[in-house]
Design brief:
- The protein is an alpha+beta fold.
- The protein has 9 helices and 9 strands.
- It is globular and about 55 Å long.
- It has one domain.
- The strands form 3 sheets. Strands 1-2-7-4 form a 4-stranded antiparallel β-sheet, with helices on both faces.
- A hairpin with a 5-residue loop joins strand 5 and strand 6.
- The longest helix is centred in the middle third of the chain and has 21 residues, at 99-119.
- The chain has helices spanning 3-20, 30-33, 37-41, 99-119, 137-143, 192-196, 209-212, 226-239, 260-264; strands at 24-29, 74-81, 92-93, 123-125, 148-149, 155-156, 164-171, 241-243, 252-255.
């Protein structure tokens, strides 16, 4: 494929993803992604593969380790906006995926049907969880120019701040990367996200560049503690109530996980 053909193909894919419902979309080189901060840090992180949000590892991977198809050369990252006035996009209804994730899965699933039919390119719909063969989505989104990782340890986009949800697929051809962005809103911010945390997740430096051999650390400075964040998720799980919801025959437990650091971020909010 010539460079001009690659540009035409990538442009068509970006356009199709938006038509299918993606609010943001981009490409990252798989080779670059494998050297990104989370890929090198996560396997060394205490408690890797533990806590709420992880899944049983049935691929023979070490905690924090990533494995994709050998044919993967480009990762296509898709994002949908999660507005503050639609909290239900992120709610768990029993064991059923949140509605926002189902929207993302539908967009990526349709891309996985359309791309091979249109271009003869092999694709792989990456599972959400790394333990199941997924990817570190925030790093992928940074390299794809969707946003940057902020001091809240979340992806922060120019358009929507951290109020986005992510999913990805791999392609067996090399396409031009769309990023990263020269975008860092946290430089001028008063860290409202950190102040909003009920568990004080960002109050203590727990990782150092010397110990882990890299400058980019959780919370950017080594201050984000996933185990402490998990305490809030566990508390949210414990107080969740059962409700009768359309589509369910019996009342179902609705889990509403904390979004305080996300909602406190001023980036992407309407200017008042």
């Amino acid at each position: 494929m010539t460079n001009q053909d690659a540009l035409r193909v990538s442009s068509a894919m970006l356009s199709k993803a938006r038509k299918l419902g993606a609010d943001l979309v981009g490409f990252a080189a798989a080779a670059d992604l494998k050297k990104a901060p989370s890929f090198t840090f996560a396997p060394q992180m205490p408690g890797a593969g533990e806590g709420i949000g992880t899944r049983n590892n049935d691929l023979g991977l070490k905690p924090g380790e990533v494995s994709w198809p050998e044919t993967a050369k480009t990762v296509m990252v898709v994002a949908v906006h999660h507005p503050e006035d639609k909290p239900e996009m992120d709610w768990w209804f029993g064991r059923v995926d949140p509605p926002g994730n189902r929207v993302l899965a539908k967009v990526v699933g349709e891309l996985c049907s359309w791309i091979p039919d249109q271009f003869g390119i092999q694709v792989f719909h990456l599972p959400y969880h790394v333990e199941k063969g997924g990817t570190y989505l925030k790093d992928a989104a940074v390299l794809a120019a969707i946003g940057t990782v902020g001091k809240n340890n979340l992806l922060v986009t120019p358009e929507y701040g951290p109020r986005v949800r992510l999913r990805a697929l791999t392609l067996d051809i090399e396409l031009p990367s769309t990023g990263p962005l020269a975008f860092d809103p946290c430089k001028l911010c008063s860290e409202m996200c950190r102040k909003a945390c009920p568990q004080k997740v960002f109050d203590k430096k727990i990782y150092s560049a010397d110990d882990y051999g890299q400058n980019f650390l959780p919370g950017r400075e080594g201050v984000y503690s996933r185990p402490v964040c998990n305490r809030q998720m566990e508390a949210d799980n414990e107080v969740a109530q059962k409700h009768l919801v359309d589509g369910f025959e019996e009342p179902v437990k609705i889990i509403k996980y904390c979004r305080r650091c996300e909602l406190a971020c001023p980036v992407g909010k309407p200017f008042m």
